Amino acid sequence: MSVRGLRIGGTSLAVLGLLLVGLVFGLSFFWVSTEASQGIAQRIFYIHVPAAWVAFLAFGIVALTSAMYLWLRDDRLDRAALAAAEGGMIFATIMLTTGPLWGKIAWGTYWTWEPRLTLTLLLWFIYLGYFLVRSSSENAERGKRFAAVVGIVGALDIPLIHLSVVWFRSLHPQPVVVKPDAPSLPGDMLSLLMLGLLAFTLLFFGLFLLRYALETLRDAADARERRATT
Amino acid sequence: METAIEVAAPVATAAPTVLEASGLVREYGTVVAVDGIDLSLGEGEFLTIFGPNGAGKTSLLRVLAGGVRPSEGVVRVRGKELDFGEVDWRRHIGVLSHQGFLYGHLTVEENLRFFGSLFELRDLKTLIPERLEQVGLTDRRHFLVRQLSHGMKQRLSLARALLHDPDLVLLDEPYTGLDPSAASVLRNVLSTLRDGRRTVLMVTHNLSEGLKLATRVAIQVRGKFAFEAQRSDVSPDTFEHLYHEVVEGWK
Amino acid sequence: MRGYLGQIRAIVWKDLLLEFRTRERIAAMAAFAVLAAVLFNYAIDKSLVSPQNIAAGLIWMTIVFGGLLGIGRTFNLEAQDGAMQGVLMSPAPKDAVFLGKTIANFVLLYVVAILVVGVFMLFFGLDLGTSPLALAGALALGALGFVALGTLFSAVSSGTHMGETLLPILVFPLLVPMVIYGTTATGRLLGGRPVAEVAGNLRMLGAFALVAIFAGAGLFRFVVED
């Protein structure tokens, strides 16, 4: 796919995603019903949960493309991993900022060691490791491979971290916080949540394509520069 | 006291090709260390590659030894392309690197025993004393490597490189830092490699030593072969002049 | 297969021999263990908290921090002597090299772990609890997973400008399962709970170690190639 095609596709998806996110915002303020125990503050849920979903989806893409990169050595796969990682980190940051905000307003504390929040925090640090290893490597090619390894090991460990953190939580129950969870959501909330998931996913893929196109251009420019100086 | 080394006549081309490289390129970031080199070494040949610092000789050697992948091009040992996913072909290659590949805090014998185990060699109890005898280090076998002089370390490196009796031997600057007597010892050991079945590639900027054992010579400048010839086509007296001409000419 | 195990054994022996001769890492790790315990003594207000209650956590964190000190330097000696290249160019498969280094690191770390437990027992009057064997097992399984991840990422960090300072960032997030299951098991054992209560924890520690070892063995070759 040509760079131009990627940029058109990426921009369209991103714009569509943004419009939908705007719609979700609007609906979450004016349309959806208020959750009984938490009141208005709960509405941040419609941003918070989709952001988490995308953060983990992105990491799945990072892990998959990284594994394929190590196998096939195609630079395009590495670029895809990088683009996905950047997107993923952004959405993880969104989740990690909306979470404590919600917590403070709804329950009075910023941080509750809730398993999903904790897992996303750790994911955020794995992303950080991914980028640090890429940028501080002495050799750019090795940096790509190092990052791929970080992505793969991270993906292998995340299920274990999830299990352990949830189990830990069951041992040390915090004050029970009511958080509507998908299966038990009333109809309109569920619909808005699904819309939110769709919106954020489209936005992510739009950004992903744009970032991928940018990286492709950058690599091409580097290659031209190298040939010019030899 | 120098003993004259006989230079063999060029080997008839019926000898099988042991080492082959085509279109070899090796880049490190924006630096192109090896810039398109083709090479074909037959069994029994001894190729010495000369060149100034920064010519990319060490990089070339590392690619040929299977230490790093080429950025472009192919290396073939006995007709088979080097497969970094396999390890068996490494048994046939011996490398003497100017890095030494030795552990300073282990003794001479412990170093050889370690690498012998990596190469899965049997009978190390008899093999190691033999090799130590060959390089004249028998009485130092319990010395820690960090206690050895540079010349002795080179000899040990050579023993390590030849421990598994490889038929392709790659030497990176073996004479660097050696005084004339140490160089003489090294040369004597290297001359035993000229037995017709072993193939040797040596990189050096010691012009006189490099010529002594070679059957072929090449001069590498800035990643390319600027000059190639059979040893019999060059004369030791004029080689230095030729070398400087070639190197200057490429600048 | 015999040759493969022989290669691993050679690498383990070589690393332990080098450590025995230089004593660099073990000295740093052991000193850290003792000094950390001393600092903990002053850092804990014994009128508010009894060390016994938090011993499990303190023990594991001391092992992790001290262990990382030593593991971070796994490839320093190799780089110094330039010998790593020689090992990589030998017919030893990269996973064998990884396993050898990991086992050697495990031996070092386990010695330090035992030392840490001993020091904490001494300083804080702990006893070994229900089953010293199960405790030893928990420490071993936790250490195994830790060392496998640490060795893999030590090779990664050695190839970066940030070096050892990168290691905690890479390793700590991944260690959460080990810390959770390890400290819970240790806490229960030290607190006199029956061994059956820690069986699940030990299984999870084992699973963690297995994943870490397989991941490390499989991915090491991509880290060290040039």
Give an overview in words.
- The complex is a heterotrimer of chains A (230), B (251) and C (226).
- Helix content of chain A is 80%, strand content 0%.
- With 230 residues, chain A is an all-alpha fold.
- The longest helix of chain A has 43 residues, at 187-229.
- Chain B is α/β, with parallel strands linked by helices.
- In chain B, 30% of the residues lie in helices and 25% in strands.
- Chain B is built from seven helices and ten strands.
- Chain B has helices at residues 57-64, 108-118, 124-135, 150-162, 180-191, 207-212, 236-249; strands at 17-28, 31-42, 46-50, 72-77, 80-81, 93-96, 168-172, 199-203, 216-221, 224-230.
- In chain B, the strands form two sheets. Chain B has a six-stranded mixed beta sheet with strand order 6-7-8-3-9-10, sandwiched between helices.
- The radius of gyration of chain C is 18 Å and the shape is globular.
- Chains in contact: A-B, A-C, B-C.
- The A-C interface holds A 70, 122-123, 125-126, 128-129, 132-133, 136-139, 142-143, 145-146, 148-150, 152-154, 156-157, 160-161, 163-165, 167-168, 171 and C 149, 152, 156-157, 159-162, 166, 169-170, 172-174, 176-177, 180-181, 184, 204, 207-208, 211, 215, 219, 222-223, 225-226.
**Terminal-residue CA separation of chain A:** 30 Å
The total beta strand count of chain A reads: 0
Low-confidence stretches of chain B: none
What oligomeric state is this? heterotrimer
Low-pLDDT segments, ≥5 res of chain A: none
Give me the secondary-structure category of chain B.
Answer: alpha/beta
The helix/strand series of chain B, from N terminus to C terminus, equals EEEHEEEHHHEHEHEEH
**Helical residue percent band of chain B:** 25-40%
